[in-house]
Amino acid sequence: MKIPIHSALAYLSRTRHRGEDVDCDETQDLVQGVKDGDHQAIRRAAVLLAQHPALRGFGGLVIPAPRSSSSRPSLILLAKELVNHGVGSASAEVAVRDVPVESSRMRRRRGEPGLTEDDHASTISVRGVGGLVRVDEAILVVDDVYATGSPLPAVARVLRSSGHRGPIMGA
Fold first, then answer.
1. DSSP state of 106
2. What's the predicted TM-score (pTM) here?
3. Average pLDDT estimate for 81-104
4. What does the pLDDT read at residue 148?
5. Which residues contact 43 (CB under 8 A, 6 or more apart)?
6. Rounded CA gap, 2 and 16, in Å?
7. What is the DSSP string of 5-72?
C-alpha cells in the first residue's frame, strides 16, 4: 500500500533553523537524540517537523509507529509534542507490536536483509478503530527512522484491514 511518507531526516536536513542551515551532522544528532529519548531533541524535532508543508494544518490523529521489541516512549512523546505544536488534534498509541521482532538494523549488521512490510504487518495490530479512532479520521504515523520505510506502510495496511477508511500518511 502506497502512503505519502515525508521523511523527517530528509526534511530536517533541508530545514533552516534561526536562519542557519541545519547541517547533516546536526540532523544526525537530532535524530539520534529523538531515538535516545532526549526531551530537548524531541521538542526541537517537533518544532521543525511542524513547519513541514505537508504537516501544516493536519488535523487528524498522530500515532507513533510500534518499535520492534518494546514500547517507544520517545515516539509517544514526539507524537504528543507534534500535537502541542499544532500538528494533529490528538495523539494515541494505536499500533502495537504483538510479537517482538529483531530490528532491521541488527539484521543488516549481520549481513541479513531487513524486515519487509509483510514481516512488520504480521506482527502489528491496531486498537480503537471505530471507537478511539474514527474510521474516516486522518492519521499521521510518526517514526524516528526512515531506512526501508516498511513499518509505515505496514501500519497503514493493518489500519485498513481493521476498517479504517481515512487518509493515512507517515513522517
1. H
2. 0.79
3. 88
4. 55
5. 81
6. 29
7. B--HHHHHHH-EETTEE--HHHHHHHHHHHHHT-HHHHHHHHHHHTTSTTTTT--SEEEEPPPSSS--
